[in-house]
Specification:
This protein is mainly β. It is 8% helix and 50% strand. It has a 16-stranded parallel sheet that branches. Helix 2 links the parallel strand 1 and strand 2. The longest helix is centred in the N-terminal third of the chain and has 16 residues.
């Protein structure tokens, strides 16, 4: 029989256990097996430190940690290396200071952060979809201070919103640096695009409408640096290209392109068309005397220029 005082004590202990949330843990893993075990038991707020080494492919599906779980290389100078990472219907996950040698695919996910990480094709074997990072039907995605290089394409955005791409470096890219379609509330700021390589179609940033039923809107492209110090085998190149395709005449609204520096060897520094309620402000086209500010003579009657 439990005495009344003991019964009250048990109630008090139970109340404390439920009222005070479990504290976050910091866990160190050594390989793919221990990482998978850690992810099975992870809870919001946990930090998983990754020892140096190869972790192969990582796939997560249907996982919502409710609060951010961080996967971080234990030694940032010797990052944990993944081949492919595939996140489907996953939420509240951060990758910090990792290396990806094929691609990161994020689908139907939200609250995903990728910071201080490196994306490149190992041994010149590009990912199957051609992109270092592919984002589809996602929201609240942040790509910050990453390096993306030696890939056919850098970042793809499709049917996504609330995406922040800040402080990244993209170089030795073969086609598009950032390619967007049917997306909105996108911020692209403080990135460094340079030394793109040969391709029949080079755009450092491109938004288009292929295979889409809606146009993109509320896109800010600000404070970026676009440098092409030498011709990419004399092929035409564009700094920022925004237009609809001939098969899909959808317009763009609330586009702001501001305070970007674009220089050298561009066929068109800003190739813009089909924009409404948009602004083109205080951009600098340096050292490209033959480049046109727009390949189309009348981008929009509502496009303001300064």
């Amino acid at each position: 029989m439990v005495r009344p005082l003991a019964r009250h004590a048990l109630f008090f202990v139970s109340y404390i256990c439920f009222a005070i949330p479990c504290t976050a843990d910091t866990i160190t893993v050594l390989n793919a097996e221990t990482l998978n075990q850690a992810l099975v038991h992870a809870k919001g707020g946990d930090i998983i430190l990754l020892a140096e080494g190869r972790y192969g492919d990582l796939a997560l599906a249907g996982t919502d940690f409710l609060k951010p779980v961080v996967l971080r290389s234990r030694d940032k100078t010797k990052p944990a290396q993944f081949s492919n990472i595939i996140l489907r219907a996953t939420a509240q996950l951060t990758f910090d200071s990792i290396a990806v040698t094929r691609s990161l695919v994020i689908k139907d996910a939200d609250h995903i952060r990728i910071i201080n990480s490196h994306f490149s094709a190992e041994d010149s074997k590009p990912p199957e979809n051609g992109y270092g990072i592919f984002i589809l039907r996602c929201k609240v995605i942040s790509l910050t201070d990453n390096v993306i290089t030696a890939l056919p394409r850098g970042i793809a955005l499709s049917d996504s919103n609330t995406v922040d791409i800040t402080g990244n470096e993209l170089f030795y890219i073969g086609k598009q640096g950032i390619n967007g379609v049917a997306s909105h509330d996108i911020i692209i700021t403080g990135n460094y695009f340079h030394d793109f390589t040969a391709s029949p179609h080079l755009d450092m940033i491109q938004f288009w409408t292929a295979n889409s039923i809606v146009g993109s809107h509320h896109i800010t492209i600000r404070d970026n640096l676009f440098i092409q110090p030498k011709p990419a085998e004399n092929l035409p190149m564009q700094g920022v290209a925004i237009a609809f395709t001939a098969q899909n005449a959808l317009r763009y609204t609330h586009i702001v392109i501001q305070n970007n520096l674009i220089n050298d060897y561009f066929g068109a520094t800003l190739a813009l068309a089909h924009l409404d309620q948009s602004q083109l402000l205080q951009n600098t086209d340096a050292f490209s005397p033959n480049a046109a500010t727009s390949r189309w003579p009348q981008p929009s009657s509502l496009l303001r220029r300064r």
